[in-house]
Amino acid sequence: MTVSAVFVADIDFWVSVGLLAGIFAVVGLGLQLNVGYTGILNFGPAGFMAIGAYSVGILVLEVGMSFLLACLIAMAISIGAGLIIGLPSLRLRGDYFAIVSIGIAEVIRYSALNLPDVTGGSQGLFCEGPRCWDDSWVGASDGINGVVESLGWADPPILFPLLLVVWVVVIAVVVTLSALQRAPWGRVVRAIRDDEDAARALGKNTFLYKLQSLSIAALLGAVAGLFMAMNLATVHPQDFKPLVTFFVFGVVILGGMASYWGVLAGSLVFWVVLEGTRFVELPVTDSQQAAIRFGVVGVILVAVMTLRSQGLFGKREEMVLGD
Amino acid sequence: MPADAAPTTPATSASPSATAEGEARRADAASDRERRPSGWTARYGDAVPWLVLAAVAVALVAIYGLQPVAQTTLNGLSFGAVIAIGAVGLTLVYSILKLVNFAHGDFLTLGAYMAMLAGTAWGLPLPLGALFAMAVTAAVAMSLEVTIWRPMRRRRSGLLQLLLISLGIALIIRAAIQFAFGSQLHTLDVNVTDAYSFLGLTLGHTEAVVMTVGVVTLVALALGLRYSLLGRRMRALADNLELAETTGINTPRVILWTWVIGGGLAGLAGILAGARSSISPEFGFQLLLPMFAAVVMGGIGNVFGALVAGLVLAVGIEWSTLAIGPQWKIPVGFGILLLTLAVRPQGIFGTARTI
Is residue B319 a contact partner of residue B60, using CB atoms and an 8 Å limit? Predict the structure, then answer.
């Protein structure tokens, strides 16, 4: 077994880790709002990500829309999906909602898999020849890289502008969500998490707040999904399996419940570990490597929940994980 | 109106003569009292799902003819044996521990792979391999209870914590299986060629065996839960865990047995599922969604409901192949669940009681 330590200096590795961490931080922030602050057991992040990615891909490649417009519409579709999903199911108890949300995410994925005319089926959508859904982004991206070069960095990686945009979005979302938490809206939402019946008894329309919380998570999921489409240059059903939702949960609980900045830290640690394992050269096959990856996620989930359930930065007082 | 399931009746007996047996029998009687709404829903409400089912069946026969509908019903019953057994194991654990066990699907996978291992490594025929596999899954479930679930319960861990732990365990089991056996498809050593024909329908030999084993298991389970001492104790715990603890029932022992039975059932379901099709490290988790659907449809915590709902759901899924392709089976199953939740959130089959 050899460990190739060269990766520490490999800038492409860090850009790729940074992108994955940023993408999962965006969707993780939405999940944190749901699970850590509102008490909604949302197991559907992979579904919202799929909506974002596929909407952009389909709208640009098949409808011929411009990229930015497609992004906006994708976000609107996702919010709509969040409402459609939430309206009937947010009145259900917590564990029912977990089952319903994971089921809906799977229905979305199966739809993507089984409608090849629209979604490319099991091949997925990918950039065809010179045309890609982010052609207009490529122009902006080159512009950013031009600026970076003029600042002295000789040869920035091609994905570097995307990395910048993703993390600007991440910081913006954290700031916005934290502000929301300090506002009256945030207090009601936390009250719902702590004791929904009490909040209702005080006259709060808890259902409406839960719906809003879910819609925000849907929006963030879609944004993460379209970032993923830009990162990978393909949109493939394989990238939206329930395992992805479980990865997001891993990120959030590693960072700690009820901590937005914790999601960032958790995401970075998570992806450094997971991508770092690529450089440990074990005499194992590809499928065994893949098994190790999600096995490690399983160990993280069990270890954090049994040994330090508040994660890295969570607050024990805010952890009302009971029923 | 809250969408919560059955309100539990407070335990009735406060008499000092409450022995473990007496309390179990009293809980028995208490749970027999149907807790339903009054009025016409009480008289006819339970019949509505069956009427809907019959109406759908009649419509399908009218559109597609009797033979296709009967054939898909038969296929559905065979698939249903798998889903019902898996759902019963899930709901048994939930009824007592209030834990949604995400690892249940991977116990199915574990059972199937252990049976395959017994066949390829030691040449055991499938029935013996199945016993070995069920012993393994039951043992793993038992050891998880002792090492993880019991300590976490003592620490008063919440729903989400336990759910995430079960998720982690699911991933670990799946990773171990994929690491050991690879991600390609495997098959169990079963007879796939023989088939029986009757009344214009065909039933594969293996499918017939699966159905027989399924029916026998489910009947034995239902009888055991109803009449055996352990069954009564399990139902007492499901009704009111704290009260059962104070009446002298050895609750840790009963919980352990619940895990053993649940784990064994999961292993059996995995073997039956593997006998019907090929296995992969993910196949158990893929079956978890229809099992969740059956559990919720039957009323979460309701073993009889999960059993019936599993069969009905599987038949419904097979019926859907008359109209749309088989690649939509899982979404269809989920769609049926959503329909059920929209109409009757406390579960369609089975009444508003815990077991």
Answer: yes
Query: How many other C-beta atoms lie within 10 A of the C-beta of residue B253?
Result: 11
Query: How large is the ipTM?
Result: 0.89
From CA A15, how far away is CA A125, in angstroms rounded?
24
Which two three-digit tokens encode residue B194? 């023989």
DSSP B197: E
Helices A45-61 and A67-89: crossing angle, nearest 10°? Answer: 150
Assess whether pLDDT exceeds 50 at residue B26.
yes
The CA dihedral of A128, A134, A137, A139, to the nearest 10 degrees, is: 10
| A112, A116, A122, A123: CA torsion to nearest 10 | -120
* Interface probe, candidates A102, A200, A257, A302, chain B, greatest B C-beta count within 10 A: A302
Q: What's the pLDDT at B100? A: 87
CA–CA gap between residue A72 and residue A7 (Å, rounded) = 37
Q: Whole-angstrom Cα distance, residue B234 to residue B255?
A: 8
- Predicted local confidence at residue B11, as pLDDT: 42
Each residue of B103-118: b (16+ CB within 10 Å) or e?
bbbbbbbbbbbbbbbb
Give the number of other CB atoms < 10 A from CB of residue B12: 11
Enter the tokens of residue A44: 């559907």
Q: What is the pLDDT of residue A265?
A: 93
The SS3 call for residue A307 is: helix
Chain A residue numbers touching B178 (CB-CB < 8 A)? 287-288, 290-291
- B-chain CB neighbours of A270 within 8 Å are none
What is the distance between the alpha carbons of residues A23 and A227, in angstroms, rounded to a whole number?
A: 7
Q: Do B330 and A106 touch (CB under 8 A)?
A: yes
Shortest CA distance to B110 belongs to which of B143, B86, B133?
B133
Give pTM, 2 decimals. Answer: 0.86
pLDDT in tens, B204-260: 888 888 889 999 999 999 899 889 999 999 988 888 888 888 888 899 999 999 999
Instruction: Return phi, psi of residue A126, to 5°.
Output: -145, 165
* pLDDT of amino acid B43: 60
Quick one: pLDDT band at residue A44, thresholds 50, 70, 90? very high
Q: Which ranges in chain B belong to alpha helices (H)?
A: 20-32, 40-44, 47-64, 66-97, 104-122, 126-144, 150-154, 159-181, 205-227, 229-239, 241-246, 251-276, 283-297, 303-320, 329-343
CB A175 within 8 A of CB A2: no
pLDDT tens, B167-214?
999 999 999 999 999 888 888 877 777 888 887 788 888 888 888 999
Q: Give the pLDDT band of residue A126 (cuts 50, 70, 90).
A: confident
First to last CA, chain A: 46
> Residue A3 in contact with residue A281, Cβ under 8 Å?
yes
Residues of B with Cβ-Cβ distance to A291 under 8 angstroms:
174-176, 178-179, 183, 281
